[in-house]
Amino acid sequence: MSYNSDNKNVKKYIESYNASSKTVPLVIDRLLADLKDMQYPKEEIEEIILSMDEALTNAIQETIRKEHNLNIAYDPEMREITVMYIVSKDEFEAVIIDHGKGFDLHESIKKTPDKTSFDYFDQITRYSYEKQSGLHVRLNGQQISLKGIGAGLKIMCAFMDSINIDLIDKEKIISDTISPVTDGTILTMRRKRRY
User: Fold this and answer.
1) Backbone φ and ψ of 79, nearest 5°
2) pLDDT for 29-41, tens place per residue?
3) Which pairing describes strands 162-169 and 135-139: parallel, antiparallel, or unpaired?
4) What are the tens digits of pLDDT across the range 56-93?
5) Which residues contact 22 (CB under 8 A, 6 or more apart)?
6) pTM to 2 decimals?
7) Superfamily (CATH H level) for 3-107+151-192
8) What is the Cα–Cα distance from 63 to 76, expressed in whole angstroms?
9) Separation CA 176–CA 182 (nearest Å)
């Protein structure tokens, strides 16, 4: 099911897609048209498109990777991602739900400086510069700011005002850790108009 609003002041879109690389250009083309209709400037459009492309690609890759890691024959008809976005004259918001293995908070925590390491001071320097105040992961409802995150999230953080990541859990609805029952991620990103 697809919902699309062609209101003059707000563009809304929601659709579920098979976890396939064909999905990215479909969503990006639609979003590009909606951003242009809302008269976003070229630079701002490029920043939003880059962030959305990164988020979609991650969602698709994680959904496909989970199937392969569980030794399940990948069937794109069975695993979908859901994309929702709202573009208004004042802001952009997107939510992408995937069925991957989830954002691994513990792996990110491992990137914190190790005081027993020979390059401890270099690690501290890198750690402090990599802090992204706009990115948060919720653990048991509490938001935790992360450092040492991957390149894709850094790209999104550079262009978005806020990014929230929630883990979907088959047993608890929202999980605080990655586990065999983690069934995906809900990524929400927001940005106010810059220009």
Assistant:
1) -115, 125
2) 999 999 999 999 9
3) parallel
4) 988 888 788 766 555 555 554 556 889 999 999 999 99
5) none
6) 0.69
7) Histidine kinase-like ATPase, C-terminal domain (3.30.565.10)
8) 9
9) 10
